[in-house]
Amino acid sequence: MQKNQSQLEQFFTEYLENQVFDREPHTLYAPIDYIMALGGKRLRPLLTLMGCQMFGRPAGDALPAALAVEVFHNFSLVHDDIMDEAPLRRGMPTVHQKYNANTAILSGDAMLIEAYRFLCQSPADASLPRLMHIFNHTALEVCEGQAADMDFEKRDDVSLPEYLRMIEQKTAALIGGALALGAVIGGASEEDAAHLDAFGRNIGIAFQIQDDLLDTFGDPEKFGKKTGGDIARNKKTFLLLKALESATPALRQELMALYSETSPALESAKIERVKAVFSELQTAASAQAAKTDYQQRAFQHLAAIDAPEEGKTVVRDFANWLFSRDV
Amino acid sequence: MQKNQSQLEQFFTEYLENQVFDREPHTLYAPIDYIMALGGKRLRPLLTLMGCQMFGRPAGDALPAALAVEVFHNFSLVHDDIMDEAPLRRGMPTVHQKYNANTAILSGDAMLIEAYRFLCQSPADASLPRLMHIFNHTALEVCEGQAADMDFEKRDDVSLPEYLRMIEQKTAALIGGALALGAVIGGASEEDAAHLDAFGRNIGIAFQIQDDLLDTFGDPEKFGKKTGGDIARNKKTFLLLKALESATPALRQELMALYSETSPALESAKIERVKAVFSELQTAASAQAAKTDYQQRAFQHLAAIDAPEEGKTVVRDFANWLFSRDV
Fold first, then answer.
1. Which residues of chain B have pLDDT under 70?
2. Can you give the residue ranges of every domain in chain B?
3. What is the DSSP letter of A92?
4. Top-level CATH class of A5-322?
């Protein structure tokens, strides 16, 4: 009997709440407790649990690995927030704001080590070399994606394939890795674990494209925030890079000019004009098509896995739920 | 036939030089190549090799773990240098100076992950769970030591036992851990690995006390730099904390006043007066006695190890060489 999404959520939350992150010295560990208690959707650890039970082992066997994934994810947020000088995370002060940058660096380092420590608490009969291989490569990809993202801010010639590679590394690799870790603990073959990893990566890319779409074309009522934020901040997104790819030289030049504008007074006019250009170029439709394409590829990988239908259904339902916030 | 210190040095240096640290994206990996090429004494990886061959396996089996230790050590330097705002490392610009702080944070993160990746390249028949246990705990101790060191700068009531605990975590734990990793790869029992770890920790603490002594009382000719730097920078060292412990209330007050002085014009007079107080309190002799005590404890742990004398001799010679720069 496999657990469904809400049962797994409760299962992980209870496990998480029983962890004691804060210990001596408090200057090192209290910030870890702070960020781990800030909440968030806890999507990645659920994937680890789902990946495990899919192959017939109880989800509980994957709890330490699921926690490793969540702690790693939060480590990356703590360090990214320093680099991005972000004041808020989940509506609360970021770690470097609440404490200071040095503390955020050092507590982040300890979180990365803690993530490995939790991973090593996986059942003794799960192959630690395989788990470590997945974790190391995923973690390096996340760093590579963050490096590319920072590089892109300084470049005006980023291509769409480069962007897709960056979001695969920065966001999608961990979705895939979270599932693959669970699969290995569940006893999956190399091939099935690779399929589940590929499922996660494709879902992750589709999800990021959806995020880009929602930020510009989402219904503010449903989306919960004002649209156009990415345009206002001159952020290179799937939409912009796709538009630049398909624009005439004149339109391309206009878009580039709009995306160098930073005056708050011109913000609304700029957002309106960029959206008009996107509409003219049918950029939203292209993004929607790309998203659907990645989703389909994802589900093909899921279908190829040699596992009972019940566990796959839990994962498929979860992915469909992720995409239910549609534009 | 066991390799001696200089043979192991050459062995490790060749292995290190064959590594390719720089790959795409260069913004992430070039700084790793930079810091790893800056040199340094490479003492820690030698200990891993010595720990391995002591138990009868070839030193080559421990090369990946030795590299993991060296990469981890350099990761900690990169992040510590940001926190300490240090401009120079080994006479060259620190990573955050040469690149920028964000790059130093992110490349440091990648180095920590790379260290785990190298550790996992240890021979398949070495127990990865045991290696990971040692590495995780050592790495966390190094972070705890750095946190304590930063805390101490803001406190004026640091005790000598607190200082000794801090240097054990920040410096000595990795000396012990480097040896213990080698021991496990070499096939040591839990007990022998623990003895070798304790040997390393005691050697590490003795070495730090010697460093404190040399900074204040070293022969500038032999020591290679001006003495009194720790006093000038109001650094809490074994000497200061020992002196505060044994001083009369009046002398204690005078020392505290001297250690709040930051004027460069008064530096020489301050150094002279602090050294006079240390002499009056026989602080150097106390430090020398403490150092000898830690050394003796170290050699007792080495003697307790069930291994052929040949390998122990290599380690003992190495430790004696470390202490040959005597005051």
1. 223-224, 325-327
2. 5-322
3. E
4. mainly alpha
Using one digit for the tens of pLDDT, what is the confidence trace for A34-92?
999 998 899 999 999 999 999 999 999 999 999 999 999 999 999 999 999 999 999 99
Answer whether the bond into residue A308 is a cis peptide, omega within 30°.
Answer: no
Q: How far is A188 from A181, CA to CA, in rounded Å?
A: 10
Chain A residues in contact with B140 by the CB 8 A cut-off are: 110, 113-114, 117
How big is chain B, counted in residues? Answer: 327
The answer for A 55-84 residues in CB contact with B (under 8 A) is 79, 82-83
C-alpha count within 13 angstroms, C-beta hemisphere, residue A187: 10
Interior CA angle at B90 toward B84 and B94, to 5°?
45
DSSP 8-state class, residue B301? H
Q: What is the pLDDT of residues A13-31, one digit of tens each?
A: 999 999 999 999 999 999 9
Nearest chain A alpha carbon to B145 = A25
Nearest chain B Cα to A122, which residue? B129
pLDDT of residue A226: 80
Q: Is B302 within 8 Å of B199 (Cβ atoms)?
A: yes
A228 and A271 Cβ atoms separated by less than 8 Å: yes
The whole-number pLDDT of residue A222 equals: 73
Give the number of residues written for chain A: 327
- A112:B109 CB<8 A: yes
The pLDDT value recorded for residue A326 is: 54
Q: Can you tell me the distance from the alpha carbon of B86 to that of A91, in angstroms, rounded to the nearest whole number?
A: 34
Which pLDDT value is given to residue B222? 73
Task: Write out residues 112-151 of B within 8 Å (CB-CB) of A.
Answer: 112-114, 116-117, 120, 124, 128-129, 132-133, 136, 139-140, 143-144, 146-148, 150-151
pTM value is 0.96
Selection from A106, A174, A112, A176 nearest residue B110 by Cα:
A112
- Reference B274, options B253, B255, B246, B247; nearest CA is B255
Residues of chain A neighbouring B129 (CB-CB closer than 8 A): 120, 124, 128
Residues B71-74: contacts with CB within 8 Å, 24+ apart? Answer: B71/B36, B71/B111, B71/B114, B71/B115, B71/B118, B72/B111, B72/B112, B72/B115, B72/B135, B72/B139, B72/B142, B72/B174, B73/B44, B73/B174, B74/B35, B74/B36, B74/B40, B74/B111
Instruction: Give the model confidence (pLDDT) of B99-134 as tens digits.
Output: 999 999 999 999 999 999 999 999 999 999 999 999
| Closest residue by Cα to residue A179 from A9, A86, A47 | A47
The residues that bridge with A93 in the sheet, in sequence order, are: A88
